[in-house]
């Protein structure tokens, strides 16, 4: 009779898990269900968000999303507050979160500012300003190559240059080594905060309030952090377990995790650069590129830090190959980011990737701090660690002025 | 046995999240395409779209199946509609013209294709009916306020203080007042509600035209009324639409038909609020202008008159050559927001000249 008892108790368990849900559903149906006007108080205000504006041949195209609580109908378009005939595809009626493409034929001039307005059926007008009109980028081979080149300049080359500090870091004393590790953590903390700021900026400017920008960023950061933390732990444990075979020693495993984190971060930077080119701020983007290049050199140091304490097989050709691979992992995502940012820019994906990058960075910082603690007599408050951390933040702040 | 299952769950969850993220990010690429729809731009380009055109021609229907509008307003009908009232003769021989005007403030008007606005109305439309009398007639207005707010009727012109519609506030929900005065002076005048906040009561639509004809009359003409007005749809103190007779672009999409060599007389009243000036420019012609219409001799011969708030006058002209002629505000912002129209000048059927057409070459 024990078996049936267990079955019974299992059934009870499932039931006790489901019953609250049933009540919740009943509640929702009662409030929202057809014919229910219990809570029909107040005036819901419509809201639409123009997420993307493309300047194509004699036409301005607006991707618009209904981000309000009620359905809306797009009734009219204007440019610089002057009414223009237009078309909405597939149609002007938008349910919550539905999007449409508004096509406004208009002989626009390159590099001039435009205010695009859309009016909905109750006469409310929404406006979005474009600082400088630039033709929407077409993914031609030439442009693909151009972005790859920019990504290389911004991502791969500076990281590789940073890695060249490895021999130097390797020869210094333990104290100084800890200083450099802490410096790396400081650099990364700055980068993480920088990504969060960028993500919040993009969501503030381009995403509707209903996306809860701050909460979206926070949630994605935590999820990204947890995902990488879990994977990283697994990786390091496996590395420790298989030290004998030594294909992946603990320092390399840690450097790899740092590379992945920085790579995710550089993907976000690539997005920003691609988007800047795509949105027509060309001068701004050359500036960005120089700034990012200087900025990212410091990322190479972050990877070089743990690698410098590798033992055994960590010399010669295999070492160089490993370093090159790590540099590529950290730097090349900038290329992919630039492609996506330039050709299929969407503020929503930008916010997501920037937040993922931030979460990754925080995971890396935790990894490095633990590495210092293990290496350095379970102590994080030594002079070298504290001064290194502070120096890292300062260096990043100073180089960030260039961006 | 547990681990692979959790892996499957995690993998499928990831896929689902990724798919939905992609859909949120790039939904337009997933929507199916429909067949083409063609429309012309203001600059003459022709565009094909798989979607819906949002510059359709205004319709005047109030069929609830097609519109939420309660106001039925036909700008073409309003253009040439004059109300002379119920006429009777008083014992002293004077003509009495009685009108009933009902104010409401809950009407919904389709003020532009697909755009609906709560207008405040005299007799159900914006502008209210054109009231017309001859100098010296007694005008009696039985005013009923069926609105929720207080309203009055204030006529520009000469009348006793208690008929001025300023201090005699008429309460909503059926309040009544009888305005009675002798029509004068000769000319074209506005009437409007004069309850505070005044700007709101005017821009919401409580205004109309009051014409006083001279006893000897004016020469026969194709007569029209144009109220130059604007609408502030988002209550930010700026007009979103401008028009002659409320509906933006209406007379551009539906040209006013007139004849060559026939006198056209327009009673123009500027009721635009917020913007200090408005004006009227006529293409391919000039008009004789009678400011406020109080004189029988024109003051100007021009193609451009600038009007401030409630400034008004009479414009007279006739076209020699048939064809399409624009008329619009030369404050071009206003014309790009709807205050633009077309006179379609047709060969006058009663005109000999049109049968003996001159060939000017090409």
Tags for this model:
heterodimer; A: 403 residues; alpha+beta; Immunoglobulin-like; 2 domains; 9 strands; B: 362 residues; mainly beta; five-stranded mixed beta sheet; 6 helices; 23 strands
Helix and strand topology:
The complex is a heterodimer of chains A (403) and B (362).
Chain A: H1 2-32, E1 48-56, E2 59-66, E3 72-79, E4 82-84, E5 87-89, E6 93-94, E7 99-105, E8 114-120, E9 125-130, H2 141-163, H3 166-171, H4 174-206, H5 213-241, H6 250-278, H7 282-307, H8 316-331, H9 333-343, H10 347-375, H11 383-400
Helix pairs in contact in A: 2-7, 2-8, 2-9, 4-7, 4-10, 4-11, 5-6, 5-10, 6-7, 6-8, 6-9, 6-10, 7-8
Chain B: H1 2-25, E1 37-40, E2 46-49, E3 52-53, H2 75-79, E4 86-89, E5 95-112, E6 115-122, E7 131-134, E8 138-145, E9 154-155, E10 175-182, E11 187-192, H3 198-203, E12 207-213, E13 222-231, E14 241-244, H4 250-253, E15 256-259, E16 264-270, E17 278-282, E18 287-291, E19 300-302, E20 304-307, E21 312-317, E22 323-328, H5 332-336, E23 340-346, H6 352-355
Parallel strand pairs in B: 5-8, 7-12, 13-16, 15-23
Antiparallel strand pairs in B: 1-2, 4-5, 5-6, 8-10, 9-11, 11-12, 13-14, 16-21, 17-20, 17-22, 18-19, 18-21, 22-23
What report would you give on this structure?
The complex is a heterodimer of chains A (403) and B (362). In chain A, a hairpin with a 4-residue loop joins β8 and β9 (125-130). Chain A folds into two domains: 48-130, Immunoglobulin-like (Sandwich), CATH 2.60.40; 141-400. In chain A, the strands form two sheets. In chain A, strands 3, 4, 6, 8 and 9 form a five-stranded antiparallel sheet that branches. In chain A, strands 1-2-7-5 form a four-stranded antiparallel sheet, with no helix packed on it. With 403 residues, chain A is an alpha+beta fold. Chain A starts with a helix and ends with a helix. In chain A, α5 (213-241) packs antiparallel against α6 and α6 (250-278) packs parallel to α8. Chain A has eleven helices and nine strands. Chain B has 362 residues and is mainly β. Chain B has a single domain, classed as Cupredoxins -  blue copper proteins (Immunoglobulin-like, Sandwich). Helices cover 13% and strands 38% of the residues of chain B. Chain B is built from six helices and 23 strands. In chain B, the strands form five sheets. Chain B has a six-stranded mixed sheet, with no helix packed on it. In chain B, strands 4, 5, 6, 8 and 10 form a five-stranded mixed sheet that branches. Residues 27-35 of chain B have low confidence and may be disordered. β5 (87-89) of chain A pairs antiparallel with β3 of chain B.
């Amino acid at each position: 009779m024990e078996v049936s008892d267990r079955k019974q108790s299992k059934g009870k368990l499932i039931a006790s898990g489901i019953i609250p849900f049933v009540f919740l559903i009943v509640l929702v149906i009662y409030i929202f269900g057809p014919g229910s006007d219990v809570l029909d108080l107040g005036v819901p205000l419509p809201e639409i968000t123009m997420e993307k504006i493309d300047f194509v041949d004699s036409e301005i195209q607006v991707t618009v999303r209904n981000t309000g609580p009620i359905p809306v109908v797009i009734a009219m378009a204007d440019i610089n507050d002057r009414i223009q005939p237009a078309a909405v595809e597939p149609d002007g009626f938008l349910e919550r979160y539905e999007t449409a493409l508004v096509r406004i034929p208009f002989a626009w001039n390159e590099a001039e500012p435009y205010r695009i307005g859309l009016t909905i059926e109750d006469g409310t007008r929404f406006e979005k300003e474009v600082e400088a009109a630039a033709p929407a980028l077409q993914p031609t081979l030439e442009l693909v190559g151009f972005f790859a080149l920019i990504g290389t300049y911004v991502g791969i080359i500076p990281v590789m240059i940073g890695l060249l500090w490895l021999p130097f870091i390797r020869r210094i004393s333990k104290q100084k080594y800890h200083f450099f590790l802490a410096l790396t953590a400081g650099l990364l903390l700055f980068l993480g905060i920088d990504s969060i700021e960028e993500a919040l900026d993009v969501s503030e400017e381009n995403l509707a309030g209903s996306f809860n920008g701050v909460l979206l960023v926070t949630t994605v950061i935590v999820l990204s952090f947890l995902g990488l933390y879990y994977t990283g732990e697994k990786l390091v444990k496996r590395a420790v377990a298989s030290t004998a075979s030594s294909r992946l020693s603990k320092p390399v495993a840690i450097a790899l995790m740092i590379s992945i984190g920085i790579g995710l971060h550089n993907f976000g930077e690539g997005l920003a650069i691609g988007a800047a080119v795509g949105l027509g701020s060309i001068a701004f983007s050359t500036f960005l590129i120089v700034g990012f290049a200087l900025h990212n050199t410091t990322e190479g140091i972050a990877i070089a830090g743990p690698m410098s304490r590798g033992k055994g097989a960590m010399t010669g050709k295999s070492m160089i190959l490993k370093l090159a691979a790590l540099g590529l992992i950290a730097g090349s995502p900038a290329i992919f980011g630039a492609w996506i940012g330039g050709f299929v820019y969407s503020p929503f994906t930008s916010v997501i990737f920037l937040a993922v990058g931030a979460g990754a960075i925080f995971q890396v910082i935790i990894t490095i701090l633990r590495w210092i603690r293990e290496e350095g007599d379970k102590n994080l408050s030594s002079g070298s660690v504290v001064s290194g951390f502070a120096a890292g933040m300062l260096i990043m702040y100073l180089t960030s002025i260039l961006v | 046995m547990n681990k692979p299952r959790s892996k499957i769950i995690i993998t499928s969850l990831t896929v689902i999240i990724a798919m939905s993220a992609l859909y949120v990010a790039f939904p337009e690429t997933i929507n199916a395409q429909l067949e083409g729809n063609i429309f012309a731009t203001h600059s003459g380009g022709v565009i094909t779209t798989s979607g819906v055109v949002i510059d359709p021609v205004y319709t005047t229907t109030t069929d609830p199946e097609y519109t939420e509008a309660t106001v039925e307003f036909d700008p073409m009908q309003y253009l040439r509609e004059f109300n002379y009232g119920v006429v009777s003769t008083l014992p002293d021989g004077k003509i009495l013209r009685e009108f009933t005007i009902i104010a409401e403030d809950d009407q919904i008007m389709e003020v532009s294709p697909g755009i609906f606005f709560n207008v405040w109305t005299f007799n159900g439309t914006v502008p209210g009916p054109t009231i017309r009398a001859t100098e010296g007639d007694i005008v009696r207005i039985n005013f009923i306020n069926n609105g929720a707010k207080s309203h009055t009727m204030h006529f520009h012109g000469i009348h006793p203080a208690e008929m001025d519609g300023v201090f005699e506030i008429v309460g909503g929900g059926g309040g009544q007042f009888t305005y009675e005065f002798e029509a004068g002076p000769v000319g074209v005048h506005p009437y409007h509600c004069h309850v505070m906040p005044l700007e709101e009561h005017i821009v919401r639509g409580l205004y109309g035209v009051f014409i006083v004809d001279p006893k000897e009359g004016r020469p026969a003409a194709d007569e029209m009324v144009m109220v130059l007005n604007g609408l502030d749809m988002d209550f930010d103190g700026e007009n979103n639409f401008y028009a002659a007779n409320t509906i933006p672009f209406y007379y551009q999409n539906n040209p006013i038909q007139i004849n060559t060599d026939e006198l056209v007389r327009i009673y123009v009243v500027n009721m635009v609020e917020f913007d200090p000036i408005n004006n009227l420019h006529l293409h391919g012609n000039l008009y004789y202008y009678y400011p406020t219409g109080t004189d029988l001799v024109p003051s100007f011969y021009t193609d451009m008159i600038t009007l401030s708030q409630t400034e008004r006058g009479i414009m007279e002209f006739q076209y020699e050559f048939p064809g399409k002629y624009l008329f619009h505000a030369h404050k071009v912002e206003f014309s790009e927001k709807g205050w633009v129209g077309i006179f379609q000048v047709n060969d006058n059927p009663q005109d000999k000249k049109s049968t003996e057409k001159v060939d000017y070459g090409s």
